[in-house]
Amino acid sequence: MKVVSLQLPSGPSMERLPLPFSPTELLWRYPLPWAPPPPSPLGDTKAQLPAGLPPEPRLWTREDVAVFLKWCEREFDLPNFDMDLFQMNGKALCLLTKTDLGERCPGAGDVLHNVLQMLVRDAALLGRVPSSPVTPTARAAPYPPSPHSHPPTPTWAVDSFHHFHSAAAAAAQPNSVTLSPAPSVDSSGSPQRGETLSYASAYAPPVPVQAASSGSNHSDSDDDAQFAPPPRSPKETPLTSPAPQNHSASQHTHYRAQHREFFPNDMPESNTNGRLLWDFLQQLLNDPTQRYTNYIAWKNRDTGVFKIVDPAGLAKLWGIQKNHLSMNYDKMSRALRYYYRVNILRKVQGERHCYQFLRNPTELKNIKNISLLRQQMSPTRVTPQSVVKTEMKEERCEDEHVEEDMPTDLSMATSEPWRKRARSDNSQPILPHDKHRISALIGDSMMMKRESEYNPEHYALNLKSEKCEQ
DNA sequence: GACCCGGAAGCGCA
DNA sequence: ATGCGCTTCCGGGT
């Protein structure tokens, strides 16, 4: 008999901590009276804008810009801006990159940039102002219709900048409008233009560490400090008010120059809006205001490695998201483990609660298509032994085809056809101990495979395999 | 004891 | 009816 736990992660902010999803889905997401839908960050920002200020920043006059900046100072507790550096209208303001903003107002550039992004994006979504190639609302092009024609998977080291430009140019095309809820625009977590965010260091979360109930959220890794910004004490500012940290814009610029980010700028719009676990995690990881870093945080964004800082708390969030209130880390981690077999995730060996995305979001969004394609092409594997053989063969061929014949969907039928058959095949029943041996064999081979994949070249190899597919 | 793993069965949804 | 993406439960290993 199951007991549904109604205990949400404790702490003052959990109930109010908005999940990064669309207001239109809040009824679905918060169907229960004890979990009222929090206002979206965008909604808050819009609602709190000074009266008389047009919602479209690009229409602002110079005076409007000044009003906006003053409002930002108050609202986000920012240091006073040097107004001389902002003698411009709204259109010019929107053209400023995050770096530009950071230089004009050190420590607040990120906040300003994000707020402007949200406002511009919202205005664009409402169709009031068409996107222009240079606006922050320049959206990624619609995802290519064919898996064979999908955009080049980001080559992490060098291509993101070019991706942005092509994506921005595509977004400027009239037909590239994507109508989706505003918050999920940042499902990618990435900004909408070339000036990418260094989210991992941009903001401290307004969520206090104790927001979740697990008590297991202590760090067990020496380098935790690298990815988890120091939590701020609970503040009276709204949760929608990101708090700047003392990271210079130059640091961000340097970071961007040296690393690709896990989220490319030309991320296609998520159509799952967090209903899928990987999407949920990525939305949290890439929340523009980093509200969830006490739950989950990038450990190395470049390689997709992240750490679940608060397993129990994160599981509760996921449970809220899916309306499975008895969700816990054990169950959620089982779902994560299903991602192993489809090469979406892997476990970072030896580090608790650390996982690594093996595919970037662009690939993930395309996985369904790849799955269908591979269902047609992949050979049938009907026995565990053949699975092992196949896996071993894959391993041998790994240098050239990292993901050859790897399943990309989560269904048992397609990824492990032998399993269903084994259940119904009376002629060759698989005894429990045999299953475990088989499991161990498969596990060993998979482990070998995974270990061999665990190197910095993995993404490059993945990309190569993707290209080979085509 | 917590974490991690993967099998098994089932559920809700599209 | 079917497949997908989990959810739930579990036994076992570390």
Automatic annotation (TrEMBL):
Tell me the GO BP annotations in alphabetical order. Answer: cell differentiation
Biased composition of type Pro residues is found at 142-154
Q: Where would I find the PNT domain in this sequence?
A: 39-123
Composition skew (Polar residues), residue ranges: 173-199, 238-252
- Location in or out of the cell: Nucleus
Entry GO MF terms: DNA-binding transcription factor activity, RNA polymerase II-specific; sequence-specific DNA binding
A Pfam match = SAM_PNT
Q: Which cellular components does GO assign to this protein?
A: nucleus
Xref: PANTHER family:
ETS, ETS DNA-BINDING PROTEIN POKKURI
Q: What is this protein called?
A: Ets DNA-binding protein pokkuri
- List the lineage, top down: Eukaryota, Metazoa, Ecdysozoa, Arthropoda, Hexapoda
